[in-house]
Amino acid sequence: MRHTLSSRIVRFFTRIPLPPRAISIEAERVAVAAVKRRKRGRGRASLHIAGAAVEPLPEGVLDPRFSELNVKDRDRLSGAIRRALEKSGLRPGGAWSLAIPRRATQTVVVPLEEVPSSKRELAEILQWKVERLLEVSTSDLRVAFQRLLPLNGQERYLAVAGVEEIIRSYEEALAPLNIRPGLVIPAPLGEASWLWLDELQKDGLLVTCDRGPGDPVPTIVFTRGHELLAVRTAESMVGTLADEIHRTLVYYLDKLAPRSEAAGGSTGAPRPELEAILLIGEAVSREDVEASCRALFPPDRLPSVHAMKEIKLGDDGDVTLDHLASAAGLAAMCLL
Hints:
The protein has helices spanning 5-13, 74-88, 119-134, 164-172, 187-192, 241-256, 286-296, 321-333, and strands spanning 21-25, 29-41, 44-56, 94-100, 106-112, 141-151, 154-163, 179-186, 203-209, 218-224, 227-233, 259-261, 267-270, 274-280, 304-307, 312-313, 319-320. It is an alpha/beta fold. It has two domains: 5-103 and 163-333, Nucleotidyltransferase, domain 5 (2-Layer Sandwich); 105-162, Dna Ligase, domain 1 (2-Layer Sandwich), CATH 3.30.1490.
């Protein structure tokens, strides 16, 4: 049985059966989305957005941070979610998935020198390593672990941590709507599921930037097949966002891309298998990424580049797929 990203996330983050509907909360807006599967004949099916809407958040309602209070005005946050549900035609109540701002969590890659002999020992080692990396006791955190693909023979786990009190404040904003959040994850992990909609068999890359005040902070997610390969947030960039993405592609070619086999069985040149690059966020330029790809990749191995901000939804053109990426991606995750 193939274990997809969605099955791994659901298994590690929650054991509650989840419906294909989700809410995403960002610094400046909330979004709601529901996804359904539509038959296409010959046993095939595709996913379609059954209802969705975006609602702006007034200034001062939310201030995403890892270690400080995020929700400044719960009533206005609840009201914005209610208005989004009304516009979408989706009913409140019941179980929903929830994507919260990336800044409200910390995501770190935990390498293991040796594989523990038991699940209990594995959990203890991972928790100890997270405490050392974040300098916060895991008793104060809600932590989830997900195994990454091994790199250079080393086992690695992705740890996603949030302060329990802060995550609970997001969940409490849903209580007036009788919504029970089952799966709660940072927005980039919900957005990553878009890489699976086209059933990529090789490598994919998601570049997503925080929305809201301040300089854009990119989160980089590499996938291989239906597995996570690498996750990184560039908190301190050197140069521009375009420079950071260019360095990311250089890193892929140097460290992550499959290698051809040279004479004598030694490792040869990189053989890039990056099929698609997905860009989310107003600050990310498709033209800059395409220019970096042309400079770094062979002409016959250029990845396709897709910017969600260029896909308009509705007649007025004010809402793009970029605004719904996290909510719709997280909703779709339950059907992948």
